[in-house]
Amino acid sequence: MSQLNRRHFLVTGLAAGAAAAIPATAASADPDPAAETAQAPASRGLSTDPFTLGVACGDPDHEGFVLWTRLAQNPLAEDGFGGMPQRPFTVQWQVYADERGRRVVRSGVSVAAPEWGHSVHVEVDRLSSDREYWYRFRVGPYVSPMGRARTAPHPLSHGALTMAFVSCAQYEHGWFTSYRRLAEEHPDLILHLGDYQYEYTKDTYTIPGGNVRDHEGPETETLANYRQRHAQYKADPDLQAAHAAAPWLVVWDDHELDNNWADEVPEKPEVPQPDFLARRAAAFRAYYENMPLRRTSIPRGIDMQLYRRIRWGRTATFHMMDTRQYRDDQGCGDGYRDCPAALDPARSITGAAQEAWLIDGFHRSRAQWDILGQQVFFAQRDNNAGPARITSMDAWDGYVASRRRITQGWMDAQVRNPVVLTGDVHAHWAGDLKLDYDDPTGPTVGSELVASSITTGGDGADSDPATHPYLTINPHLKFYNNQRGYVLTKIERDLLTADFKVVPQVHEPGAEAYTRATFVVEDRVPGVRQTYLRPLDPAIGARKQVTVEDTVRLETERP
């Protein structure tokens, strides 16, 4: 931030009054609402800038959004307290109508308490709909970077939306270049679909050629471990740029806790982990502390309410889902199997309550586009050309009846345009959704777009998507690419356009992004249609043909 902007913040802060006198004009999601802000000294004990983890905004509606920051003088401190004194701090916040911070439209104070990792969650309301805002924080003489926020359109209005979605950022496997390129796109909204951070200790899984950088600390199991790991990720400047660029909608997948966890079952239940529920509670608490979430998501022990809806006027309703916390354990293990348990109608990936909530939302929706923001592959992906159906037990293929109920639910509700967004598998995919995947000639009833990883798996490689064996075995799948990147969408009344963005490498920083392919979904025409495919470099295509074994290996992080 320039000295001019820092000085202006101090001037506007004084104009509004001293910290204790600034009216708390928006509710703060501090876990103890009775905390007296005047009792928290402003900066005593701070010797360096505590805004090392940046700022963030999330969960916008037509009147406001959540603002987030977390104070940390030493982000990588092993005790998880970020080098902060063990007492609360008063934090001022301001929201501006202009990027230079000249017009303050909302301001207040919140408390950063040590019990919650000195995080701040402010729910700002009573703003104008469908417009940009900017915000920042101050504690004592220290001023945070500026962030950009945005409110959604009025519930009865339409408006085009530029939305990007991402997943799977393994810090060790590369530089977060795609976050930087995403920030430069200036989207209205960013969805993170899980694996925001990884739990492994240094070099647990290495990529060919070796990892680019290292995790600090042991495998995350305690609250201090998870706080330290989140801080290491949040300190990355490319990730900070993406958070400051637009509001985020976040949901977790597995690595925020433990690879392939399922409800109260760890990845390897055969290996005793008597403290797994305590580990789960620690991971949930740290996740809330480090994300721009509303008070409705404050964790209660081992439980956390993460599935929720965000409406973007009449244009889109985002049904943000949780496919980890309530699922039955994977059938026949976590890998690819031909597994009878996958067909058991009693098994669920969402749990009964979330399933009912989702289907009820389909019936109530009046949006042009109903978008499911969720974690794991939704469409069937059989990797066997013979009679056996060999699919991933960790994805919706491991919960076939659950998938069919959700699909039937949006069909019964006559959802206008159902679109499923997915992460997890470290590759770009696009495909059509069916009610019955055993009948390839049956009607298409929805669309699925899948984002590659930010870094997980390392650089990856380009290939001709038409030659991938999955696309032959599963004709409803239309696109595959194993480079790192993100998906940038433009959502309009009559058309959803998805650009599959990639970077050529992540083992060094600074690569430029380009569009590998573009797909569109037309209003009331379920399924994806390709409108652009970047020509493949013949030298790249000739080097290596992608196989089923490659795809499975790359999805599971094993080099």
Number of helices in the DSSP assignment: 10
**Strand share of the residues?**
25-35%
Counting helices, strands and paired strands, the structural category is alpha+beta
Which shape, going by the Cα principal axes?
globular
**Main sheet specs:** 14 strands, mixed
Describe the structure.
- With 559 residues, the protein is an alpha+beta fold.
- It is globular and about 70 Å long.
- The longest helix is centred in the N-terminal third of the chain and has 14 residues, at 3-16.
- The protein starts with a helix and ends with a helix.
- 53% of the residues are buried.
- The chain has helices at 3-16, 177-184, 223-234, 237-245, 276-289, 352-364, 400-412, 469-473, 538-543, 548-555, and strands spanning 27-28, 55-58, 65-70, 89-96, 104-112, 119-124, 132-139, 142-143, 147-150, 161-166, 189-192, 248-250, 308-312, 316-320, 336-337, 369-373, 391-392, 418-422, 428-434, 444-450, 460-461, 477-491, 495-503, 514-522, 525-533.
- The strands form four sheets. Strands 10, 11, 12, 13, 14, 16, 18, 19, 20, 21, 22, 23, 24 and 25 form a 14-stranded mixed β-sheet that branches. Strands 4, 5, 7, 8 and 9 form a five-stranded antiparallel β-sheet that branches.
